[in-house]
Amino acid sequence: MAVTVAFVSEKGGVGKTTACYHVAIGLRRYHEKRVLVVDADYQRGGISGRFFPDLIEEFDSGAASGTTLYHKFQQLYSAGARTPDVDIRPWEYGSITIDVIPADPRLSTVSVDKLPSTNNIRQNNLMLLGHLQMVDYILSPIQENYDYILIDSHPEVSDVLRSVIYASDYCVSPVKLDRQSSIGVATIIAEINNVNADVDMIRMSVQGVDYTDTVFSGSIGMMAREWAETLKYSEQTEYNRLRRTGGVFETYVTEGDGLRQAAARRMPVYDISGANADKQAGQFRALTDEFAGVCV
Ligand SMILES: Nc1ncnc2c1ncn2[C@@H]1O[C@H](COP(=O)(O)OP(=O)(O)OP(=O)(O)O)[C@@H](O)[C@H]1O
Ligand SMILES: [Mg+2]
To answer: What is the pLDDT of residues 133-186, one digit of tens each?
Structure first.
């Protein structure tokens, strides 16, 4: 059974996609794990475009081809039959393959407000539960095919994010080590607790809800700045604060040109040459090792 991990943060541009992409490739390449990446972001420039540049143009047209997560939520709104099938596209790179469920910009319109409403409280609660379970419902039939399912997300607490949290065993939160990061992490932890508590309540009246609480396994320091090979003082202070706010991964990734070049060339930093790229590649390998030890 796959371990499902979501990359979540309240703030945008902190390195979620970069972390998810490199951990996915690290797990496949260095740990020989079977990996599925789910893109639950609905903004341009997400992980789908990193894997498949042709999808960026398609994304800009406001739609996506094939059957996506969006269509599955739509089934709930039209009260039609639910079916879990979505299109999976394999990313082939050298000798490795990673499966990807690409993003759909229309996921931005997903909301429990669109569920058909009745004046029956039980019926309404069952529909809310179905919405929360949607991502899990889609992943259930395919999860035996993978060791890890990594979900990249949009930086916003939304009904999509809640469904992502429900489907996940763990959440990790990439953050910049600035003064605001521990506040953002607290918001994410609160939302994870909300989902867990909502399921607890619903389980009192609905039988057969197979759910284990989603665990926040820690923040990941991204774009960290060093001074003489150690974290700058203010960043170390924030790192320590994160340790007390749900925990933080030992490994952090420094700010630098290696990852910028890798992004521009749509390659993993593992395959970029240069001193800075070597350093960042080493950090991502160490992060992948730590990740595989924590998210089990
Ligand atoms: N350590 C780093 N050093 C330099 N640039 C980086 C580093 N990490 C990420 N970047 C760059 O910063 C930008 C934002 O990163 P990324 O897209 O991973 O963030 P994100 O949290 O996924 O953003 P969003 O919330 O918009 O999805 C990208 O252009 C990425 O290439
Ligand atoms: Mg992103």
So the answer is: 999 999 999 999 999 999 999 999 999 999 999 999 999 999 999 988 889 999
**Structurally, how many domains does the chain consist of?**
1
Selection from 17, 4, 294 nearest residue 154 by Cα: 17
Closest by CA to 4, choosing from 142, 182, 97, is: 142
Task: Indicate the top mutation candidate among 17, 21, 56, 156 to test ligand 1's pocket, ranked by most ligand atoms within 8 A of CB.
Answer: 17
Ligand nearest to the CA of 16: 1
Q: What is the CATH number of the domain that holds 194?
A: 3.40.50.300
Q: Ligand 2: distance of its center to the CA of 32 in Å? A: 25
Distances in Å between the Cα of 81 and the Cα atoms of 76, 130, 138, 244 are 8, 12, 14, 45
pTM here is: 0.98
| Structural domain containing residue 281 | 3-294
* Residue 267 CB partners (closer than 8 Å, separation 6+): none
Confirm or reject: Cβ of 15 under 6 Å from ligand 1.
yes
pLDDT tens by residue, 112-139:
999 998 899 889 999 999 999 999 999 9
CA 64 – CA 3 distance, rounded (Å):
27
How many angstroms does the Cα of residue 222 sit away from the middle of ligand 2? 13
